[in-house]
Amino acid sequence: MKKILLFAGILLIAGACATKKINFDQLQERNGLLYMVNDDEPFTGEIQSYANGRVEMEGNVRNGLKEGLWIYYYPNGQKQMEGIYKDGLKEGTWTYWTDNGVQENIELYKLGTRLSGGEAVTDDEMSEGLQGEVDQELQSGSKGEISGNLSGGEKQSEPAPVVKEEKPKPQPVNYDWLTKGPVKMYQGRPYTGAFIKYYKEGSKGKYIYGYFTNGRPSGKWTYYHRDGRVKEYKYY
């Protein structure tokens, strides 16, 4: 009987330890990842941070990166903001409140980039908005002709087309410029974007073309033979 009680007590203690939330002050950042002090493996678990005896933020960390729902609080205990992290980057809808509990703003994120702010935007609304921009572009070229025909008079001169200046697309970085390790760093930050890796014999032989998100492999990676033919694809 004593052995059974002892075993049950051990299970209860183990369960309590497994669900214990770690104080954020016990973690330290190394190369973009969170670690427990004096620990060699990136931290995974639940965390909380306190200020003046009150919780100021709480959330989850997986493999050293913020993951899942995170909530931040004002000193009076009211929610300040909450939203989702994916691989350490803001993702989806983030909601913000004033310190008296009134909803103040809603922002939409994709891979850490804010797509909109000020109001909630659904996927359907985003699609409609994009389609509206396309329709506007298609109609702008014939607007003068349509208005001229409707007036019953001669065809009016069309307005000069508006030429939009396209921003140059970011160029992929050389893989050799990234730091070694599980999280690839570039210019002191976890790298997000495209990269090219070349065969060691020279800079002209492309070996891999792929992407990193927050320093980790993501999306489609293309592998090439030395003659430039595609060898295989991998997805992350």
Question: In the CATH classification, which architecture of the largest domain applies?
Answer: Single Sheet
Give the H and E element order: HEEEEEEEEEEHHEEEEEEE
Work out the count of structural domains.
2
Average pLDDT level: 76
How would you describe this structure to a colleague?
The protein has 236 residues and is of the alpha+beta class. It folds into 2 domains: 16-123, Histone H3 K4-specific methyltransferase SET7/9 N-terminal domain (Single Sheet); 173-235, no CATH class. Helix content is 19%, strand content 42%. It has 3 helices and 17 strands. The protein has helices spanning 2-19, 123-140, 143-150; strands at 22-23, 27-30, 33-36, 45-51, 54-62, 65-73, 79-86, 89-97, 103-110, 113-117, 173-174, 185-186, 189-190, 193-198, 206-213, 216-224, 230-235. Strands 1-4-5-6-7-8-9-10 form an 8-stranded mixed beta sheet, with no helix packed on it. It has a 5-stranded mixed beta sheet with strand order 11-14-15-16-17, with no helix packed on it. Strand 16 (216-224) and strand 17 form a beta hairpin. The protein is flat and about 65 Å long. It starts with a helix and ends with a strand.
